[in-house]
């Protein structure tokens, strides 16, 4: 679980998370970038993205399970390659958005790591970094 207060209204935060805007902010030259984002934003609709590193392009995908715009989106997530700590195990990510003053408190709950403690720890650290990128993009 990770949380941050963001300097934008919920509809802008949601757009940054589930549209091609993902490609503008998610990542850095030192780590990886998200590219080729596509989504069918409806319950049961799928999404796909490429995680692009300096020397690889790694696909990830999932389905939207719940959509309550602009308050909540729940989706599955799976790496379509053998992630070193998680393999191809499917997890679930919930984005919860709450208006706070002129901005939004975004809470991310990422579950489904039973039996994969190293992957859980890695993803917890990564969400903190991702929220930092999103704060800079929206700020």
UniProtKB/TrEMBL annotation:
<dbReference type="InterPro" id="IPR013538">
    <property type="entry name" value="ASHA1/2-like_C"/>
</dbReference>
<dbReference type="InterPro" id="IPR023393">
    <property type="entry name" value="START-like_dom_sf"/>
</dbReference>
<comment type="similarity">
    <text>Belongs to the AHA1 family.</text>
</comment>
<feature type="domain" description="Activator of Hsp90 ATPase homologue 1/2-like C-terminal">
    <location>
        <begin position="8"/>
        <end position="139"/>
    </location>
</feature>
<protein>
    <submittedName>
        <fullName>SRPBCC domain-containing protein</fullName>
    </submittedName>
</protein>
<dbReference type="Pfam" id="PF08327">
    <property type="entry name" value="AHSA1"/>
</dbReference>
């Amino acid at each position: 679980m990770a949380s941050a207060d963001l300097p934008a209204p919920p509809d802008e935060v949601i757009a940054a998370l589930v549209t091609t805007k993902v490609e503008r902010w998610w990542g850095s030259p030192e780590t990886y970038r998200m590219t080729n984002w596509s989504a069918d934003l409806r319950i049961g609709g799928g999404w796909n993205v490429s995680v692009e590193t300096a020397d690889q392009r790694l696909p990830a995908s999932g389905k939207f399970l719940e959509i309550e715009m602009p308050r909540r989106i729940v989706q599955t997530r799976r790496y379509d390659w053998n992630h070193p700590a998680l393999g191809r195990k499917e997890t679930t990510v919930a984005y919860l958005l709450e208006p706070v003053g002129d901005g939004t408190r975004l809470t991310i709950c990422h579950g489904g790591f039973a039996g994969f403690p190293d992957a859980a720890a890695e993803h917890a650290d990564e969400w903190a970094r991702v929220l930092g990128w999103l704060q800079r993009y929206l700020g």
